[in-house]
Amino acid sequence: MSVITTILGTVALSICGFKIVQFLLSLVATLRRLVYIRRHLPGPPPHWLYGNFRDPGFMEPGFKWEQEAVSKYRRLLVFWMGWKPVVMLNHPDSIKPLLATNIGRKSELYQVFKDWFVGLAIIEGDVWKRHRSLITPSFHFQVLKQYLVVMNEALDVLIDKLHVAVDEGKPVKTHETMSQLSLDVILRCAFSHQSHCQETESREVEVLEKLTNICAYRMFHPFMFYDFIFRLSSKYREWKESYSYMHVIHDKIVTDRRRKYVTEKEPEKRTMDFLDTLLLAKDSNGNGLSEKEIRDEVSTFIFGGTDTTGSALTWFLYTMAQHTEEQARVQEEVDTLFAGRDDDTVRYEDLKKLTYTTQCLRESLRMYMNIPPSRVLREPLKVDGFTIPAGTSVVVNIYQAHHNPDVWGDDHMDFRPERFERANVEKRDPFAFVPFSAGSRNCIGQQFAMDELRSAAARVFRRFSVSLVKGARPVFQIVTKPDNEILLKFSHR
User: Which helix (H) or strand (E) holds 480?
Assistant: First the structure.
């Protein structure tokens, strides 16, 4: 017995010793990487404890820090999150090697979402490939044509609301209104679900706002990124209540659809929506998604379909209100499109005819969009003569990339839709404009989003003109949101 005990003790000590040695070697490698980055890669000088978190202007409305940083560091820069370096890429020459290859894996920054959802935007490897393969049919152009019919129904509600606001002489809370519209569109199109969130105060929009704000707070707080610290904070209770509330709603949507299948003899023969795809799709082995995977994807697409599109519409209307000549050209294009028609329904073949409207939308996305993809390098990445070591967190700073003077000129803060004329687009690197990311992990719903943006623009400017009552500054909250509500005055044409 003593011999066995001795052997087991020796094995345990050996394993323990191996783990200690492994930890020490990893620690030494990490310290060497940090020292190398500090000495050799460019970036604003960090504080010894807080890093760059306390740099003047950082995380303040207006993105002044981002503008000043890219004016000085035009390919990459190191931002120190405390003692953790994050390399920001801000030029197509820097971005392309990361997004066009498999050189990086998803960053640990995405872990701030994990209680809420772990869907297509976050998962990795074979699991991601399986989910992407199963979900892709939901965004075939024939399905998108079907979705456009439903988008018009949601836009009918919006137009009625705007008519009431005009008749009552009230300004419109633009971000709130566009967020309600976007939630209504994604629920109607992807889930065939009527929430009536445009007609009444929408708690779902309010809760989504809280969740994204807390995620952004965690990402850019020197200590709150760590779960054990965050769970002790005052925000954790609000976080838990908010994601639990969304889970209840999403579970009910799934449960109601499953009940509907019981009364339908052949549900797969009717027109399918995104939720049908999630519930009925099978991989090559005949396996579908698990209950948790289904809820995660439902949460992912409701978040992605509400926050990003709602914010994009908000900033587009804001820029149109500030630029009356461009607004008039959009209205002229829309009037030509609808000439001779009895109603304002947008047809799928109309979307490609909205050339100038699309240019304005893309220029608005360039000026305000900021959803930074983040990776951890699997191998070293060479950028502009610098070598970023393997194991380093790398972020595509989309706002900086879209305001890089080397790409967009010194007038990058000006609203100029002609930047997106065909001739100008063809002269630019495709990775210069990446509002929906790029490469194999680009946003699967980007065409859906653009269809919604163009349809909303056409419907709104067919009936109304907009002017600014109260402006706001952009602030990063996972997507770019206004720091205060933007108030616009809508007028009948």
Answer: strand 479-482
Distance CA 313, CA 446 (A): 14
Token output for 72: 């000085």
- Report yes or no: 365 and 58 within 8 Å, Cβ to Cβ: no
CA angle 374, 236, 86 (to 5 degrees): 20
CA distance readout (Å), 165 to 152, 160, 161, 346, 361: 20, 9, 6, 23, 24
Contact between 173 and 485 (Cβ < 8 Å): yes
Express the helix, strand and coil content of the chain in percent, nearest 5 each: 60, 10, 30
Residue that is written with structure tokens 């939630």 in the block: 183
Helical H runs in 121-202?
A: 125-135, 141-168, 174-191
C-beta neighbour count of 44 within 10 angstroms = 18
pLDDT score for 6: 66
pLDDT at 14: 62
What lies within 8 Å, CB to CB, of 211 at 6+ separation is 116, 239, 242, 243, 246, 303
pLDDT of residue 8: 55
Task: State the DSSP string of 217-244.
Answer: HHHTSTTTTSHHHHTTSTHHHHHHHHHH
What pLDDT is attached to residue 282?
85
User: How distant, in Å, are the alpha carbons of 159, 185, 189, 326 from that of 194?
Assistant: 17, 10, 10, 35
User: Which residues have a Cβ under 8 Å from the Cβ of 268 and sit 6 or more positions away?
Assistant: 276, 280
- Distance, in Å, from the CA atom of 447 to the CA atom of 142, rounded to the nearest integer, reads 12
Q: What is the predicted pLDDT for the residue at 309? A: 95
Task: Indicate whether this model's pTM tops 0.85.
Answer: yes
DSSP letter string over 352-405? GG-HHHHHHHHHHHHHH-----EEEESS-EEETTEEEPTT-EEEE-HHHHTT-H
What pLDDT was estimated at residue 23? 60
Taking the C-alpha atoms of residue 144 and residue 486, their distance in angstroms, rounded to an integer, is 30
- Does residue 148 sit in helix, strand or coil? helix
C-beta of residue 171 within 8 angstroms of C-beta of residue 317: no
Place of tokens 């940090």: 34
Pull the structure tokens for residue 165: 């606001």
**Inter-residue contact 333 to 462 (CB < 8 Å):** no
pLDDT score, position 1: 57
pLDDT of residue 266: 65
The residues of the chain scoring below 70 in pLDDT are 1-19, 21-27, 222, 265-270
- SS3 for 465? strand
